[in-house]
Amino acid sequence: MPTPINPESDDLDKLKDALRSILASVSSFDNLLGAFGLQDMPRAQKYGILFGVVVFTCTVAAVVTLLILGGTFKRIAEQSGSGEATVPDAVTARSGRPLLLERLLEVREWMLKTNYPPNDRQHGDKDGRTNLTKMLLNVAPNVEKIKEIHSLVNDDVDDGTGKGEAGAAAVSSSSNDADEKKSKGGGGFFGFGGGSKKKVAPTAAESSAKPMNEATKEQIRKYIPEGYEENYVRAYRKCQDKPGGATISGRPEARFEAYARAYAGCGTQTSTAYRRSYGRMYESVACKNHDTEEKYSSLFLSRPADLIGRAVRLEALEADRHLEVMYNITSGEANLEDKSYDPNEVWGFLDFGPFVSPEELRKSPVFQRQSDEAGFAILEAVTDRVIGVIILSKDDPKNLNVQLELPIVKPSADGTLEQVEACFLLLDRLFALGYRRVQLTCDTQDAAGKKLAGRLGFTQEGMIPKHMVVKEANRDSNIYGMLNSDWDKGARAFLFKKLHGAAMLKTDSANNAKEGELEEQERGLAEQEAAKQAVEEEHKKKV
């Protein structure tokens, strides 16, 4: 007999009484089936019904659990007690947004102060390089001034044009005591390398060279950016402990110097993970053999600020250096191994070009920089020939956003690995500095541009109809975006693998993970030591 339900009880009690009544009348599964007239069903169908009941019960239990853990029942109880909604309004929700990382806030302030100082209306230096361009290039010591100091110390020292760092190292130190060199930081072109762990027989130049005293080193330090020496020494010693490959015969310190100058060249504002990765990549490229070591050592002495990749390098775009060759490769005329072509293959989707003369190209937006833009020439690593330019625009350091324009390259370089790596070098540096989003736009009819955006890993965020008027015609634009979170979570690894191979990616990831752990340990020890010293200082004051 069903249990009577008290009409004065609340809804929850009524529900409990009803369930109790049902359960009391059903003592077995067969009784439950009999209540619905299904007791004569075949056994297989009975098991099917049983399985359905179990699934339904588990589903209801999961939903109730989520409601409890999610706080829904709690909010219902609060609202029934207060009579007011507990869901925060828009203003309250806005105030609860998570804040940016402290590092991003600091780098934003640094970018605004460095790249856009108050009352600065200049659009670049005498070579047309804006502050944004300089920030994205490698941190560069004043090599010419350092060479002058070297020549004053020892008139017989090679000027670096033939043997690069290896020749100039003769002025750094004549000592073969490894421990002394490591502790004092001697060695290398600047006189502050990590020193060799093994005793190496000195060359003839090194044997006759004069040792560099502290006064000379202080003179050199005046022409070296802040933080460069510290990073150089740290990287030099790291590479001594674990070089990225076999030692080049006759040049035992070549790898240490290559890694150190690349790591230090990244500056102090980039992430340490980026510095390690860029340094290892540069070391592998520069130290393949004697020829590459000599080439990149000499290149460092002549152009220390260039961004180096495996297939290309990026130089600051300068009209005096790149105008003629840029005109030749984009004018449509036959040039070297390239046949003649329609120049609209290069300029068809842009609001400028083709150009009838180099001077007309000089006056175009390709070479005329605004203060929120940066321009770079793309050079093939093997031939050192210019294949195009790549431009950044609409820099917004306040919001840590910037726009990457599609590279302007000769038709034979369009869609090549060189074009992809040029974009990769800039994207990697931008995100390492702290940018949160990079935007790319292209004409909806530009098939090559849309393909490149996909190859780089950009996400299409939308399409703007009637966005621009280009060459007196309408242009609809596709908008693509790359977030720093996307870059860190897979886009960078995807491009790195495409450019350098799976083995290099695996080595790079393992090295970064290990070095990151070591840095965390060192940071923890440093904090403990600082806390200990603070306690000791406080104790001394009390005494």
Structure, explained:
The chain is of the alpha+beta class and 543 residues long. 52% of the residues lie in helices and 11% in strands. The chain contains 23 helices and nine strands. Strands 1, 2, 3, 4, 5, 6, 7, 8 and 9 form a nine-stranded mixed beta sheet that branches. Residues 156-187 and 195-209 have low confidence and may be disordered.
N- to C-terminal distance? 87 Å
Mean pLDDT across the residues is 84
Please provide the count of β strands. Answer: 9
Largest sheet: 9 strands, mixed
Helical content stands at: 40-55%
Helix-strand category: alpha+beta
Contiguous helical run count: 23
Rg (C-alpha, Å): 33 Å
Q: Low-confidence spans: pLDDT under 50, at least 5 residues?
A: 156-187, 195-209
Globular, elongated, flat, extended or rod-shaped: what is the shape? extended
Task: Report the sheet-strand fraction.
Answer: 5-15%
Layout: helices, strands, pairs:
Blueprint: H1 11-25, H2 29-35, H3 43-69, H4 72-82, H5 90-95, H6 102-115, H7 131-136, H8 143-153, H9 164-168, H10 178-184, H11 204-208, H12 214-221, H13 228-241, H14 254-265, H15 272-286, H16 290-302, E1 307-308, E2 312-316, H17 319-330, H18 344-347, H19 358-362, E3 374-380, E4 386-396, E5 401-404, E6 408-409, H20 417-433, E7 437-443, H21 447-456, E8 459-470, E9 473-483, H22 484-500, H23 502-542
Parallel strand pairs: 5-7
Antiparallel strand pairs: 1-2, 2-3, 3-4, 4-5, 4-6, 7-9, 8-9
